[in-house]
Amino acid sequence: MLRQLCILILFSYATPSAALAAAVPAPNAGHLHWEVDAIAQPEPEIDQSPIWAMVFGRYLYHLGREMFWPDLDQRDSFTIGVVGWDALAEDLGQRLDGRSIAGLPVQIIALTPSLLRDTKGDFTMLFLGDTNAPSKQSAISDALKRWDRKQEKEALIITDGGKIPACDLVFKRKGEGQDIGLCLVQQLENLDEKGMVLPAQFLQRLCP
Amino acid sequence: MNTHMHLLKGATLLCVCLLVTPSLYGQGTWTRKALELAQNNQYEEAERQIQVAIDNGEGADPLTWYVQAFVLKSLFVERDGRHPESTNRTAAIASAFESAQRDPEGKLNARRAPLLSFLADTHLEDARDGILLSQPGDATASVVHFEAYSEINRHLNQDWDATPDAVLLDQQLAEHAFRQAELEEPQKASTWFNWGQVCYQNALSKGHDQYRSEYNLAVHTYNQGVRQFKAAENDLDAIDGALKAAAILWQAAADGLERALEIDADQRSGYEALAVVSEALLKQDKIKWCKTHLVELGQR
């Protein structure tokens, strides 16, 4: 009896902290996933907007609005053809969709040199892309000659830097790094023949 | 008979010792009572009971403090609904630390460590939620909880390195800032944008995951320039001015991407982004350089 009492006492008191600790429920240690939680942002994506197509598009839009266009009243629409630069055609389309220039609905037509070659109609403005690449310039020049073989087209012809004899105006990218911009080279003789004069804002941006 | 007498004397001596120094062995009556109450989910009563235990001399036992930590942690979860400003959580951590201090041999570590880890993780969760409450120049809501999370982890492991999580917090604060800059364009964009830059600079200064910080900051800087440029189209002066302003940001982005690639020259994303930025900046040589590296990386 005495032995049992002693065993009971010893059992009860030998390791009370451990016994009590064992009785205390362990907390839920569910791990939180910091990196994969809702707030975790994916790596940012770089904006792939075609910057220079947007720059050219804005210049073309303002040129369209501010230039005096001879015989515009004889046209059904203000048509801008864009050869070899889909991003520019797209930018212009987004900017001018549903809008009008000089009271005429705007129409944007994206073309390749071969499509230009087969085009019969005229444009109000015809923009030629890819003219800086010597390998492509000849194809564009040939298409242009074919399109205007009767030399009766009155579109204002603009290039993206290459100087093609039939063009009226060149939009040139200039500078590098922080000092970038756009300047213009006008072919006065061609413009005179078409009865066109650049607006003042554009004349202030002629290339040196 | 002699044997019985010896046993009786021994047992009597043992009982006397245990009664004289009850808390030494943790058999405190009040602690046990508090535990029973806690096990029956009567946490508020258990809290009162464990305080009585401490006030009556059972506080020398690390287990008493552990039980208090457990009860307070339960109040934080059950009654306070894990509210970020719950004082019960703070008190639970303090009690757990007190328990540890009174337990130099670490006998209760197996119980205490999960409890502290759990509380640390709730602080981390609150630090994460605090990101959404941050304002330009003020990330207090996040930082306070992150510091509590760090303190617990340092307590649990002296070699614990807070840097990776601290960098991630800065990066997340920066991402939130840049997202706000985009949403609040143009009125408050610059304030948020500047704050995002500061957060990424903070992340960079910690010397961990630097490629990501440089890359992300550069991409946001470039994108901010694009957004600013897109907003200007009233006349040619506005367009030219916006292009020049954007080009300053784009050049900063290009410099950042160059630094990122110095840190890790094998990251395709860096060359791809630098090619895009160089296209905007009319840097033909750099575009070729990026393309050459991308081809090289593709051949590995």
What does this protein structure show overall?
The complex is a heterodimer of chains A (208) and B (300). Chain A is globular. Chain A is 37% helix and 19% strand. Chain A has a seven-stranded mixed sheet with strand order 2-3-1-4-5-6-7. With 208 residues, chain A is an alpha/beta fold. Chain A has a single domain (51-203), classed as Rossmann fold, CATH 3.40.50. Chain A contains eight helices and seven strands. Chain B is mostly helical. Among the domains of chain B are: 22-105, Alpha Horseshoe (Serine Threonine Protein Phosphatase 5, Tetratricopeptide repeat); 209-300, Alpha Horseshoe (Serine Threonine Protein Phosphatase 5, Tetratricopeptide repeat). Chain B has 13 helices and no strands. Chain B is elongated and about 85 Å long. The N and C termini of chain B lie far apart (89 Å). Residues 1-5 and 7-26 of chain B have low confidence and may be disordered. Chains A and B meet through helix 1, helix 2, helix 3, strand 6 and strand 7 of A and helix 1, helix 2, helix 4, helix 6 and helix 8 of B.
Short note summarizing the structure:
The complex is a heterodimer of chains A (208) and B (300). With 208 residues, chain A is α/β, with parallel strands linked by helices.
